[in-house]
Amino acid sequence: MILTGNHAVSYGVKAARAEVVAAYPITPQTQIIEKLAELIAKGEMNARYIRVESEHSAMTACISAEACGARAFTATSSHGLAYMSEMVFWAGLGRFPVTMAVVTRTLAPPWSIWNEHTDILAQRDSGWIMMMCESAQEAYDTAIQAFRIAEDERVLQPVMYGLDSFSLSHTAENVDLLDQGVVDGYLPRLDPSKLPVYIDPDRPITFGNLLGPDRMMEFRHLIKEAFDRAERVIDEAAAEYSKIAGRPQTGLFENYRCSDAEVVAVATGASSGDVKDAVDGLRDKGVKAGMIRLKTIRPFPGEEIKEAIGGVKVVATIDRDYSFGFGGILGRELSAYLSGDVFRYIAGLGGRDLTIEDFEGIINGALQRAEEGKGDAEEVWWGLKEVE
User: Fold this and answer.
1) What is the pLDDT, as a whole number, of residue 346?
2) Full DSSP string of 284-339
3) How many other β-carbons are positioned within 10 Å of the β-carbon of residue 33?
4) Could you tell me the end-to-end alpha-carbon distance of the chain, in angstroms, rounded to an integer?
5) pLDDT-based confidence at residue 77 (cuts at 50, 70, 90)
6) pTM exceeds 0.90, yes or no
7) Number of Cβ within a 10 Å radius of residue 217
8) Does the pLDDT of residue 209 top 80, yes or no?
9) Cis before 299? omega within 30
10) Average of per-residue pLDDT values in the chain
11) What pLDDT, in 10s, does the model give residues 51-67?
12) Mind listing the domains of the chain with CATH numbers?
């Protein structure tokens, strides 16, 4: 089918046989839930669509559904995700295996509906596994794999995955859909008996769950151990999906032409394809460039990336986000693992367009700064204009 990134998610959720969809509209995510509502209304999807008054209520409904053993999904963006934040933490720290698509969008003010990753990365400590999609095909595939990862009894943590607003969410591509029987074999029904929290709908009893200081650390450590195991589960889920789909899948990260690289760019999201084109173009010019595409952000595969590119002399990280007083989030996090020169770039905030030439310039700029001995210098805001 020819699908936008948003509709690719919808068909992935349908194939995963989600049983409860609770969501509130917000640009540029709304198409996801509109299509799911349409599929449910036409009887093409056996699920309950819950109309809620806010994103906060949407996540509350999904948590409640998971607590009763139902497979639940929601989607949001930007301020909707911020409004939902309290219950995002409740789902993550409560270990409810909800899945959620986040169409990444700039937070206001000033008002914007364009792309940025700060909204999704602001939730990075909430106890959710976090991924980013590069294409509509990957959005469809990830929508299915996310349920498999979240519900694995070695993990049992919620999963959110990001789509760049408009450049992915509203861009149409050819998407290969799997036969329903194939998906059913890959993703069995949710077993409520395996859930950490289960409420019997026939006997709906719950008790106050105030926990004293003598046990809270242990509960947090259980989540830490789940994330340790999640790295293996994510790669396993991708490998098995590759077999049933007949196309390669990315688990933790994608290694693109890094085996003999002297400079490696690190990026995530929909612009990753342009970074690869930039790498190819530089290779044609004699520059030994490579790229690491971060598919999974939590758990952060720092040790695995270090092993993959530990001998590379120059690394350029490209962040479409910013943490004030800290810097580019992914660049700063990766710098903690690498001993070589890491040159951090902030680019594309607020949906500013980034071209192949921009990425070539970033990679060449990192090489030049390394030659000048600038080491791990202050990060560069690429294409920054003077503000009057």
Assistant:
1) 98
2) HTT--EEEEEESEEES--HHHHHHHHTT-SEEEEEES--BTTTB-HHHHHHHTT--
3) 27
4) 47
5) very high
6) yes
7) 9
8) no
9) yes
10) 95
11) 999 999 999 999 999 99
12) 2-245 (3.40.50.970), 253-381 (3.40.50.920)
**Helix %, strand %, coil % for the chain, to 5?**
40, 20, 40
287/366 Cα distance (integer angstroms): 12
Task: For residue 144, give both structure tokens.
Answer: 């299915």
Distance CA 266, CA 88 (A): 28
Q: H/E element holding 2?
A: strand 2-4
Q: How far apart are CA 141 and CA 168, in angstroms?
A: 14
Helices 216-245 and 136-151: crossing angle in degrees, nearest 10, is 130
Cα–Cα distance list, 266 to 30, 33, 219, 235, 270 (Å): 30, 32, 34, 19, 13
Structure-token pair, residue 44: 């093409």
Q: How is residue 230 written in tokens? A: 């999640």
The predicted pLDDT at position 125 comes to 97
pLDDT in tens, 101-117: 999 999 999 999 999 99
Q: Are 46 and 73 in contact (CB under 8 A)?
A: no
Q: Residue 367: what residue type? A: L
- Residue 387, classified by CB atoms within 10 Å of its CB into exposed (0-12), middle (13-18) or buried (19+), is exposed
Q: Which of 197, 102, 190 is nearest to 149 (CA)?
A: 190
Q: Which residue has the tokens 């560069």?
A: 380
